[in-house]
User: Fold Ent-kaurenoic acid oxidase 1-like from Prunus avium.
Amino acid sequence: MLGLGVGIELGSSMWMVLLCSVCALVALKWLLQNANSWLYETPLGEKQYSLPPGDLGWPFIGNMWSFLKAFKSSNPETFVNSLVSRFGRTGIYKAFMFGSPSVIVTTPEASKRVLTDDDAFKPGWPLSTLELIGKNSFIGISYEEHKRLRRLTAAPVNGNEALSMYMKYIEDIVVTSLEKWSKMGEIEFLTQLRKLTFRIIMYIFLSSESEPVMDALEREYTILNYGVRAMAINLPGFAYHKALKARKNLVSTFQSIVDERRAQRKSRNYMPKKKDMMDALLDVVDDDGRKLTDSEIIDVLLMYLNAGHESSGHIMMWATIFLHKHPEYFQKAKAEQEEIVKRRPPTQKGMTLKEYREMEYLSQVIDETLRVVTFSLTVFREAKKDVNINGYSVPKGWKVLVWFRSIHYDSEIYPNPMEFNPFRWDNYTPKPLTFLPFGAGSRLCPGNDLAKLEIAIFLHYFLLNYKMERSNPDCPLMYLPHTRPKDNCLAIIKKTGSA
Assistant:
């Protein structure tokens, strides 16, 4: 009997210990789930009750685990879809993203306020992104400084005069590259396209055509971009740690380029073929007569060279993939280019800006590719003061993420949004803030005209004379840092015409 009593007592004790452990775990989970709320919402007082619906997730991690899980799956839309299913279709949600309490906006109406009201919002990129791209780049400087530098740096890449100046150079590189690729057998199509667009931007900004320098820089940019959308873990083996090393190497290379250009300009026999972006940045002075420092010049160049080749290369690849998946679209686009060539006078060599403006269907193909791919999934702003959007409070200092993907995939704006359909653009002018491949407002991407011209020139020559045979047409996709096939689109480029 004594043994039985002891056994019952021990059993009861074990159950009590187990019960207490379960209760402790439940309590710990509850504490962790509410820690961010206590830390960031409670100090807001009454304003916390007018915050958008949502949650701030776990301490430190916030909602990043859900974000990364979605974007490393085959369906990245599950991230925002989960917010909609849990909190309703409000178009605005609170979250904890990239180390900060944030508000995610997913509708054109809310996006318009955030992207166009410079009195209420400023750039709000995560500190980790600023460390990689540069605190003196466009994403880190004040509105006034941005406006001044943008006016200076946009001139070489925008407008008819600038585009006409570079057309011949872009054409020559495209024709040469396609010919070269057709003789190489299997290639990583995306990798080759990124090299192509990087070569163009290097020529425009630095007048450089050194292939070893370009290849080295492009490799470092690849590593850098993997760190931009990663969690900021600065430990060996993590993407962010590798990206910081890549930035250091890029800065070192650009510093040597700046030093060399300064030395050239001091010599009396310096006769540049053209004034490039480097010259413009070295010459600029502010109202007080101050010139840019080397670090300011390097950050602006680093940002421009990155933005100026990544998006163009990816969109060229995706437009080519989509056209091959839809032979009827391919044939229509090809016929348009053939008709343009037929109308040329015998003495004309190459494309003209007038012909580019006449490529109506190809422009639709490019716009539809930009929409479907949505190269930049979001943009970051920060509230400069307490702001009310659609009846919800956005506290001063909170980040605001304009979620471009949700707008481009809204079935009420674009029926069957996941379908690639250039014909949806027939006689269609998108309403304000429903088409955002280059952002909007005062910080609209300054190189958008150049990017679309590059893509059009490439597709013009590809459609006329080449086709692509992918090695792995069903290759799975990666969505970070940008949407691409995991094999970088392994393919063979073949001649079909009189290239």
Q: What stands out?
A: The first strand starts at residue 92 and ends at 97. Residues 64-495 form a domain with the Cytochrome p450 fold (CATH 1.10.630.10).
